[in-house]
Amino acid sequence: MSLAEELERLSGENGAKKELNGWRLTSSAPDLGVQRARLVSKDGRTLLNNIQIPERFRQAYKNWFHLIIECNWRTICILFLLGFIVSWTIFAVIYYVISRLKTLKKDESCIANVDTLISAFLFSMESQHTIGYGLRYMTDLCPPAYLTLCVQCVVGVFLQTILAGIVIAKILRPKKRRQEMRFSRMAVIGPLDEHDKRPTLMIRLADIQEKLFLAESHVRLYMACSKINSRGDRELIGVKDMNVGYDSGWDRVLLLWPIIVRHVINEDSPLHGMTRDNIAKADFELIMTVEGIVEATGMTFQARTSFLPDEILWGYKFKPMVIMNEKLSKYEVQYSLFDQTERVTDFDAHPHDTEETEEDHHHNASGFL
C-alpha cells in the first residue's frame, strides 16, 4: 500500500472511529476481552456522566456561542437560515400591522405598495439588506413605521455580525487538525535503547498531515488511579503527572515524522516497582494529551487518548518505521508499521536493579525519540 493510500485510509472519519483511532491492531497485541470502564476514549472523548449539576441548563447555555460552534455544519447552516428568516418575518408582521392599523387619507400610506403580508415580508427583506428595488418605500406619515425601520437596521447588522462570526470561528476551528493526530493502539514497556536497559514506557505518536505543520507542540502524560472504597464503590482517588521530559524540555516534540514518547520508570515514576504480573491487575488509566498550534491559523488544539493496563505490552518495543531508502537517498515513513511491535528478549522486569549514570540522565531522559 502506498503512502497516499495509507493516509487516505487513515483520514476517513467513519473508518477511524470503527478501527479505534484509525490504526490496525498489531499482530502481537493480545485480545483485550472485556473492556474496563475508562475516563477518556481512544479517540479523545470524555466518557464521564455528570449527574445533578446545579442549574445545568443555565450553566450550559451561558456559553451559547461556543456551544453553537461545537455543532455540526448542518445545524449551523439551519441556524444561519432561520436567523434571517425569523428576523424578516417578525419585522414584516410589524410593518403589516402598522400599515393596517394606521388611519390615513385615501391616497396616503405608511409604506408605499405594502398592502399584503407578502409585500410586507419583501419590504422587510429589502430594508434589512439595503436592496431597495424602489417599488416599496417608507413614507414620513407614520412615526412607528420608520422607528421600526431604524430598529431593524440595527438588529440586522447585529445579526449578520453574530452569524458571520459563528461561521468564521467554525471554519478556523482546528477540529479536523486534531483528528490527524494518531496514537499507537498499545503502549509498550521495554528497555530505553540497546545500551540502556532501564524499563521505559513508550507510546508512538504521529501527525499524518503532510502540508500543515504544527508549532509549539508538546505532550503530557497522566495516570488516573482508582480504588474500591469502604462502601464497595470504585472511586477516582487522584491523577499523577508522569514525566515525559518536561523538566529538560523534551516534552516539546517535533512532529515532522512519527516519534516515540518515552517515560523512564525510575524511583519517581508511578509505575516504579510494578511487574508484568501486577501491572495487568492494577487499577489505573494512562491519559496522554498533545497540544499544538496550527501555523496557518494560529489556533490551539488538543488531542487525547488513553491506555488501560491491559493495553500495555510488557517486554516489547516498537518496530522502526522511518527507514532510509538507499536507492532514492531519502527517508521513508512506513505507516503500515505504526502499531507493529516486537518482543525484547532478556528484558529485566525489575526497574530498581538498573542504575542510572549522570550521562544517561542527560542523554536518555524521559522525552521523545
Automatic annotation (TrEMBL):
Please spell out the taxonomic lineage of the organism that makes this protein. Answer: Eukaryota, Metazoa, Ecdysozoa, Nematoda, Chromadorea
PANTHER family hit by this protein: INWARD RECTIFIER POTASSIUM CHANNEL, IRK_C DOMAIN-CONTAINING PROTEIN
Residues annotated as signal peptide: none
The superkingdom listed in its UniProt entry is Eukaryota
Q: Does the keyword Transmembrane helix apply?
A: yes
Which of UniProt's keywords are assigned here?
Ion channel, Ion transport, Membrane, Potassium, Potassium transport, Transmembrane, Transmembrane helix, Transport, Voltage-gated channel
Localization per Swiss-Prot or TrEMBL: Membrane
Q: Cite a single GO BP annotation.
A: potassium ion import across plasma membrane
Single annotated GO MF: inward rectifier potassium channel activity
Q: Which residues cross the membrane?
A: 73-98, 145-172
Q: Its membrane topology, per UniProt?
A: Multi-pass membrane protein
One short Pfam name that applies is IRK
| Gene Ontology cellular component list | monoatomic ion channel complex; plasma membrane
Per the database record, which ranges form the Inward rectifier potassium channel C-terminal domain?
181-350
- In this chain the Potassium channel inwardly rectifying transmembrane domain maps to 40-174
- Output the SUPFAM superfamilies linked to this UniProt entry: E set domains, Voltage-gated potassium channels
Organism of origin: Caenorhabditis japonica
* Listed name of the protein: IRK_C domain-containing protein
The UniProt family comment states: Belongs to the inward rectifier-type potassium channel (TC 1.A.2.1) family.
